[in-house]
Amino acid sequence: MICERIMRTIDRKWFSLLLLLLLSGCAHAPSQVSLPDSTVPYDRAWQVALSASLNYYDRIAVEDKEGGFFQTVWNIEKSGLIIGAPVKRSRLIGHVANKAPFRLYLTLEEQAFSLELGRWVSQPTNQEFLTQIGRDIASKLQF
C-alpha cells in the first residue's frame, strides 16, 4: 500500500514536469522594436503612429492617447491546412515610453491555432515585418 502511494506520487511529479516542459516549449515572447527619439510634438506623433499602423491592420481596437497605448485588432490569415478556418493571427501594440521627445515601442504578437490544444498558441514573431512597420512610422516622423 505504501509502495502504491509512492509510485502514484512519482508518476504525478513526472507527469507535472513533462506537462510544464511541453507548455513552456510552446511559448514565444512577442518581439519588440524601439523607434528613436523624435522632436515631433506628441499629438502629431501619436496620429502618425496610428495612421501608419492602419496601413498594416484594419483598425485600432484600443486607443489610449493619454496613457500612450494602442492595440490593433487581430489580423487573421485563413490560408493553410484547414481551408476556411483561421490558421494564424497577428496584432500590433504600441506603447509610448516618452512623450517629449517622442519615443515609441512597437510589439508584434503572432499566434497560430493549435488543433491539438483547441486554442491559439504564441508563434515566433516575423521580425522583418515588425521592423518594416517601425521604419515606416519612423520615416513619417522624420527621425
Specify Rg, calculated over alpha carbons. Answer: 21 Å
Q: The CATH topology is what? A: Alpha-D-Glucose-1,6-Bisphosphate, Chain A, domain 4
Helix content: 25-40%
Give the biggest beta sheet. 7 strands, antiparallel
Query: Helix count, per DSSP?
Result: 3
The overall strand count is 7
What's the shape? elongated
Total separate domains = 1
The oligomerization state is single chain
For the record, the CATH architecture stands as: 2-Layer Sandwich
The termini sit apart by 72 Å
Low-pLDDT runs of 5+ residues are: 13-26
The CATH top-level class label: Alpha Beta
Structural class by sheet pairing and helices: alpha+beta
- The whole-number mean of residue pLDDT values reads 82
> How much of the sequence is in beta strands?
25-35%
Order of SSEs: HEHEEEEEEH
